[in-house]
Design brief:
- This protein is mainly alpha-helical and 98 residues long.
- It has two domains: 1-51; 52-98.
- 83% of the residues lie in helices and 0% in strands.
- The protein has helices spanning 7-37, 41-50, 53-67, 71-95.
- Helix 1 (7-37) packs antiparallel against helix 2.
- The N and C termini lie far apart (53 Å).
């Protein structure tokens, strides 16, 4: 029996759910990582606040760029870059390099 919404919907839904879960984990993990590196509450709060800085700086230019490119390729490229950055951060934390 086929789903009434179709396989394309479920692929999109799964991708969106995974992305939102990853964003939530990052919102929790970043301050916890900062708290393990320093006990200064101002530094932890500053890092948490500065985590939103890329959204402020790059949201409008990225939106203008995506409006002029193929959205599927832009989304795939953005997710590859995000995964690479997260993998680099995880490797840095696991190896203990600072």
């Amino acid at each position: 029996m086929s789903s009434p919404l179709g396989p394309a919907f479920w692929r999109l839904y799964s991708a969106s759910a995974a992305s939102n879960l990853a964003d939530g984990v990052n919102r929790v993990a970043l301050p916890l990582l900062a708290a393990t590196l320093t006990r200064d509450p101002v530094a932890v709060a500053a890092l948490t606040s500065l985590a939103f800085l890329p959204w402020l700086l790059f949201a409008l230019p990225a939106g203008a760029f995506v409006d002029r490119t193929d959205r599927k390729r832009a989304m795939a490229a953005a997710n590859v870059v995000r995964a690479g950055a997260l993998a680099a951060l995880a490797a840095t934390v696991l190896t203990g390099t600072t």
